[in-house]
Amino acid sequence: MGHGVIRERGSARHVPSRFASAALALALVSGACGDGGATGLAGIVREPHPDVSTVALPDESLGGQPFSTVAREGGLLMVYFGYTACPDICPTTLADLRRAMQALGGDADRIEVAMITVDPFRDTPEVLASYVRAFFADGHALRTDDQAALDLAAKAFGAAYEVTMTADGEIEVAHTALLSAVDSSGRILVQWPFGMTVEDMQNDIEFLFDRGV
């Protein structure tokens, strides 16, 4: 499927009529990324930093109000593409981020978290908002039924996803398992693939704060 793309399966009653192919151009495999070690970061750094400031999706944790993927001044916005029926990758990633934030102490207040569902047909507004808030009390549950809007958001973040039904009636979801740290200008400063340690995420966040994001 490509760098950082995870395929998972789970049963469901409803199947969307059309989903974007996971063959979306994924910038992370185009040579436009580099080892963050050169910048003091453990995660992936893409140059130039992708600009996602124009991405705005309904926030179901705030009654569907538009939410722009831009951090507050002096803070960071963590953005993740996933889905609530994900058996392990998504909950593990969100739990690890929560642990990293807890280790930051007061600096955790400078961080917001947003999850964008790639499975809006099963992730109803209520389901998604409840899921995100179970990890982060002030988390943002971003969801849209507009396929083009979701595709554009995924492309901006260099994410890929695909939702299909197998012959035995199960839904199979493939998605890029990346967590993105966005600054107040709407730039992705670093991305962490699945498996990044809590300590590395914590250290990267502290590094960015020390550098004055």
Q: What's the average pLDDT?
A: 86
| CATH A-level architecture | 3-Layer(aba) Sandwich
Q: What is the oligomer described by this structure?
A: single chain
Element order: H for helix, E for strand:
EEEEEEHEHEHEEEEH
Largest beta sheet: what is the strand line-up? 8-7-6-11-12
Describe the main β-sheet briefly: 5 strands, mixed
Number of strands: 12
As for the CATH topology, it is Glutaredoxin
Instruction: Specify the structural class.
Output: alpha+beta
Number of domains: 1
Low confidence ranges: 1-6, 9-33
The CATH class turns out to be Alpha Beta
First CA to last CA: what distance?
33 Å
Shape: globular
Tell me the CATH superfamily. Glutaredoxin
DSSP summary: helix tally: 4
Q: Helix proportion of residues, in percent?
A: 10-25%
Verbal overview:
This protein is α+β, with helices and mostly antiparallel strands. It is about 25% helix and about 30% strand. The protein is globular, with a radius of gyration of 16 Å. Helix 1 (about 90-105) crosses helix 4 (about 200-210). The N and C termini lie far apart (about 35 Å). The relative contact order is 0.26. It contains 4 helices and 12 strands; from the N terminus they run ββββββαβαβαββββα. Strands 8-7-6-11-12 form a 5-stranded mixed β-sheet. The protein has a 3-stranded antiparallel β-sheet with strand order 1-10-9, with no helix packed on it. It has one domain (about 5-210): Glutaredoxin, CATH 3.40.30.10. Strand 7 (about 110-115), helix 2 and strand 8 form a beta-alpha-beta unit. Mean pLDDT is about 85; it is low at about 1-5 and about 10-35.
